[in-house]
Design goal:
The structure is a single chain. By secondary structure, this protein is α/β, with parallel strands linked by helices. The chain has ten helices and 13 strands. Helix 1 packs across helix 8 and helix 8 packs antiparallel against helix 9. The longest helix has 16 residues. The mean pLDDT is 90.
């Protein structure tokens, strides 16, 4: 059983970790001659993004007993993320992901996570239950329930934590994180997503992801279905059309920041880090989305994920600049 001081963290993310390998040349992978290494994985990047904004974050995940696993722990520590809950799956390898920068807005990914990724072998013995129960923000993903034993472990965490009450200062965020290659079918994923919706307070995803989760690509209808399940805040990302921000009282579309995209990989994770920052600050949902959109734009204009996460000063400047020109 893992124990810890639950009062030292603002955020615990659960799930995917890996090493991203970025081409140093454009074009298809078979023509690339060199790659640059970066920390990757949705849950990991969100923790890094929040830490870059001054939040105390940790990741609950696993790596292999290899050099890349050592790199993950050291990189997390260097980014200011608590690596105490990064376990080791002795018989597996730390995942690597190759990114192909064509098209840059939505780069194809080649995952090496076979026979199974270490982060999907999390068991209840790996969980810091005191942190799960009390941490201000718990971040879970759809990928985290794609396979046993991680599926049962994540569901047990949500059940133990319970859905936080409005005004409690605690939030449970579900990042839908739909990756088709991790599931037998969208219908299988929807079944597992459905089990989580009654336990979370915030849901974030794009059109494809909400369609898998609640059966519609229409942002407003998807928001309606999520709010009907008791979700307090639904954020539906719509690409160049912005993000729909919906609560039971209000909804609005927050426009995106237009940038020249270098690599869209990681923009959603930067969005997540800023979302966590805003939730912890007690901001209104529209302000949260403005900063989250700004964070996504910054990372989309850079070549990397974790290394590219913005600072508070960068986000303040970008959001203020938009206001000055409104």
């Amino acid at each position: 059983m893992v124990t810890s001081d639950p009062h030292r963290l603002d955020l615990l993310t659960v799930g995917r970790v890996g090493v991203d390998l970025y081409p140093q040349q454009s074009g298809p992978l078979h023509e690339v001659t060199s790659f640059a290494r970066s920390l990757g994985g949705t849950a990991t990047n969100v923790a890094v993004g929040a830490a870059r904004l001054g939040r105390r974050s940790a990741v609950l995940t696993k790596v292999g007993p290899d050099g890349f696993g050592t790199y993950v722990r050291r990189a997390l520590t260097d980014f200011g993320v608590d690596a105490s809950y990064v376990g080791t799956a002795e018989s597996l390898l730390t995942p690597v992901v190759f990114c192909e920068l064509d098209p840059p807005e939505d780069p194809p990914l080649l995952f090496y996570r076979l026979p199974v990724a270490p982060d999907l072998t999390l068991t209840e013995d790996d969980v810091p239950w005191d942190v799960v129960e009390t941490v201000p923000v718990l971040w879970v993903t759809g990928t985290g329930v794609s396979l046993e034993p991680a599926r049962s472990t994540q569901l047990a965490m949500l059940a133990r934590r319970g859905r936080p009450q409005p005004g409690s200062g605690r939030h449970t965020v579900l990042d839908l994180d739909w990756r088709a290659m991790f599931w037998p079918s969208p219908e299988d994923a929807r079944t597992e997503y459905d089990l989580m919706l009654d336990q979370v307070t915030v849901v974030v995803g794009n059109r494809d992801e909400v369609e898998v989760a609640v059966g519609t690509r229409d942002p407003d209808e998807a928001a309606d279905r999520l709010l009907a399940r008791g979700v307090e805040l639904a954020l539906v990302k719509m690409g160049a059309e912005g993000v729909l921000v919906a609560t039971s009282a209000n909804r609005t579309v927050v426009p995106p920041h237009l940038v020249e995209v270098v690599c869209g990989l990681g923009a959603g994770d930067a969005f997540g880090g800023a979302l966590v920052h805003g939730l912890l600050a007690g901001w209104e949902p529209v302000r949260i989305a403005e900063y989250a959109n700004a964070a996504g734009a910054v990372v989309a204009s850079r070549l990397a994920c974790a290394d590219a996460m913005p600072t508070v000063a960068e986000l303040d400047a970008l959001v203020t600049s938009r206001g000055a020109h409104a």
